[in-house]
Amino acid sequence: MKTTTARGPARVLLTLATALAAAAVPCVSASAAASTPPDQKPVERTDGRHGCPYAYFDLGETLIHTAEDGSTDFRPGAYAHLRALRERHIKVGLITNVPPSWGATDAERAARLKLEVDATWKGSVPFAWADFGDRIYTPRTEAERKPAPALWQRAKARSGGCAVVHQAETAEEVRAAAAQGFVAYQVGLPHRPGFLPVPVIELLGRVRG
């Protein structure tokens, strides 16, 4: 009887990753992933034992849902997805539009974002702000608002050459992220996983990082 090699599961996951990404975005040429300007923050390095993918997310209607009464909570499956990423030591971040007037820096705008979300939060589990660290990218000007490329470029510039994933709820945002070299996945579509499976994200870090 022929034995299955260890590479078999990896090939299956890589095929799945390719299929899921292709289902979410059109093919993007290498020239579309233009070089990005340097960021003011230092390039991050990840623990090589776990590969080095970065999993970025939009916020509203991707990780959290706003109800008709204005209250907010995790979208179904979002908390479990973040927890699984944390258990595998995969760094996560947010790439989200907020008013530039909320602060002069990403840190100031992130602090205001936390206040706004926490003020309406009705979930039984608090939002996992600690998971994101200082990887919360928001527009410095109106011109940087998504789908402009600036936020994805700034996030990618800190990735240290690692694979970068972006998950969002709209096809427009998925296409924009893919154009900047991200493996982009549209969440919440029927007949497919609600989020890009964590083993696929982990494998992307190993084969592309």
TrEMBL record:
Signal peptide location in the record? 1-32
Q: Which SUPFAM superfamilies match?
A: HAD-like (SSF56784)
Entry keyword set: Signal
Q: Does the keyword Transit peptide apply?
A: no
The protein, known as:
HAD hydrolase-like protein
